[in-house]
């Protein structure tokens, strides 16, 4: 695992250049090191948006690489990388911290990192996302970075950093508008007219290779692609930067089985040969912001893919289910003509992708909600009713009067897109998450019904429903808190008071036996 991190922390010889470079990678966590040094994984993931939850089986690596000529070095160059390894997808935040720390590290090396070691003590887990509704001041050397960690209760597409009194902060903090959102307009500039196709490929979890001239371009493009489904979580694997030294190289390049559901970013031309059997290959050049709309790559047949000197393009035989949104392209073109800032163009593009994803997901959410048992069917005297099974055909019938056409102007084969989506890992991940949330809600409603059924009938005497089959604890408030069920706190406190009253009326020896937390 350490060896893989070392290989991934340096550009390969095909993309090496002088100066400073930043990029990111993602690698599978070794099974022997599974388990978290953090004690609040569950708490953080319950409160974080699904797209920002802490990874359970993968690490992110954020790299600051420097290469400059140095005659005193054996190879004639100074080459060194500073890498921040995390299980959080905060690409903007961590790359910003590296920009502040890495230059000093390259000059002073270890003493600089030792001075920054206090950062771990100054950043408890709650400062990285738990129960935080305000922004944080994160120390980085002699500077501060001001960020806001998004929460699940935030409205999708809006998480501004609130202003605060900064009179006592010298120097003034660097304000990050987002911990994770990339400049989508810059990343997608050569493929803007194909954004509809790329969105569909990500939605369906199709295998894709991103061939780029540098790790910076490949990692930005892969992260931009996987983020374009927000607020839907991309549930497939993805590798922003991948090398031939990776332990999964043979697994991904074998021709004895179909390519896995993964988006992989590479820079070594050798991958064009080893991965030419993959169904979708995106070849891009350096990302440059010009005054006009950058030259758009063309969709080409896979047969035209050459081992050497492959030109930029999308090599695929995929046919989109939905028609292109020409209005979006016109708005972006108008923004270029008016010299609209890139962040404004990115916000426009992100809003379009957000609304497109929401239009696709809302009918699924509505149908899923209809599978929930009625609240009047929940009684404290019986086990909670079951969530009805998801029937694809029933859902497809519901699209006639409650489909995406109600919120989206795009025309096309929506039914075909849904049928293909049902076979993808993204549907499986979405369904499992929603079913788990609904089960917890059902469990919470059942516990609330049990709590409401507790009736005091005399001093020190209460009537309780009998423990039900499968109930691990006779105390509903213990069960609710252990399983983190969304039961009203006042209900739990009232039941705790009843139980305390009853236990307090018993002989002392029985009180010790029946004591509850």
Automatic annotation (TrEMBL):
Residues 1-432 form the UDENN domain. GO terms for cellular component: recycling endosome. It comes from the Eukaryota. GO terms for molecular function: guanyl-nucleotide exchange factor activity. PROSITE patterns: DENN. Belongs to the DENND6 family. This is DEN6B protein. It comes from Copsychus sechellarum. The lineage of its organism: Eukaryota, Metazoa, Chordata, Craniata, Vertebrata.
């Amino acid at each position: 695992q350490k060896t893989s991190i070392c290989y991934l922390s340096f550009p390969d010889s095909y993309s090496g250049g002088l100066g400073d470079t930043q990029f990111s990678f993602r690698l599978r966590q070794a099974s022997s090191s599974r388990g978290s040094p953090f004690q609040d994984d569950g708490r953080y993931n319950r409160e974080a948006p699904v797209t920002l939850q802490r990874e359970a089986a993968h690490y992110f690596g954020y790299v600051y690489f420097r290469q400059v000529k140095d005659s005193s070095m054996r190879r004639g160059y100074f080459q060194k990388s500073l890498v921040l390894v995390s299980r959080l997808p905060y690409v903007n935040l961590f790359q910003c911290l590296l920009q502040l720390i890495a230059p000093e590290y390259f000059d002073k090396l270890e003493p600089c990192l030792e001075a920054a070691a206090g950062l771990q003590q100054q950043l408890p887990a709650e400062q990285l996302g738990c129960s935080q509704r305000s922004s944080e001041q994160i120390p980085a050397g002699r500077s501060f970075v001001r960020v806001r960690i998004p929460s699940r209760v935030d409205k999708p597409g809006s998480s501004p950093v609130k202003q605060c009194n900064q009179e006592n902060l010298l120097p003034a903090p660097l304000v990050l508008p987002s911990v994770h959102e990339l400049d989508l307009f810059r990343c997608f500039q050569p493929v803007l007219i194909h954004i509809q196709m790329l969105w569909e490929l990500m939605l369906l979890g199709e295998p894709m290779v991103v061939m780029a001239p540098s790790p910076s371009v490949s990692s930005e493009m892969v992260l931009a692609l996987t983020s374009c489904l927000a607020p839907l979580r991309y549930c497939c694997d993805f590798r922003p930067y991948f090398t031939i030294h990776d332990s999964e190289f043979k697994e991904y390049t074998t021709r004895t089985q179909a390519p896995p559901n993964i988006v992989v970013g590479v820079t070594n031309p050798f991958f064009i040969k080893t991965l030419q059997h993959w169904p979708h290959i995106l070849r891009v050049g350096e990302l440059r912001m010009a005054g006009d709309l950058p030259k758009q790559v063309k969709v080409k047949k896979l047969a035209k893919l050459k081992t050497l000197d492959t030109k930029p393009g999308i090599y695929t035989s995929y046919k989109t289910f939905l028609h292109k949104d020409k209005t979006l392209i016109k708005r972006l073109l108008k923004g270029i003509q008016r010299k609209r800032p890139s962040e404004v163009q990115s916000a426009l593009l992100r809003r379009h992708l957000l609304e497109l994803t929401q239009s696709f997901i809302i009918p699924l959410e509505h149908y899923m909600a209809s599978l929930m048992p009625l609240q009047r069917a929940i009684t404290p005297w019986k086990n909670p009713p079951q969530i009805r099974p998801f029937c694809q055909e029933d859902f497809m019938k519901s699209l006639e009067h409650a489909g995406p056409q109600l919120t989206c102007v795009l025309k096309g084969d929506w039914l075909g897109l849904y049928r293909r989506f049902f076979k993808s890992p993204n549907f499986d991940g979405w369904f499992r998450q929603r079913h788990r949330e609904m089960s917890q809600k059902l469990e919470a409603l059942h516990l609330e019904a049990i709590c409401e059924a507790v009736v005091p009938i005399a001093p020190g005497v209460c009537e309780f429903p009998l423990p039900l089959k499968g109930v691990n604890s006779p105390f509903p408030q213990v069960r609710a808190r252990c399983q983190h069920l969304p039961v009203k706190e006042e209900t739990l406190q009232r039941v705790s008071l009843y139980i305390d009253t009853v236990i307090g009326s018993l002989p002392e020896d029985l009180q010790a036996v029946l004591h509850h937390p």
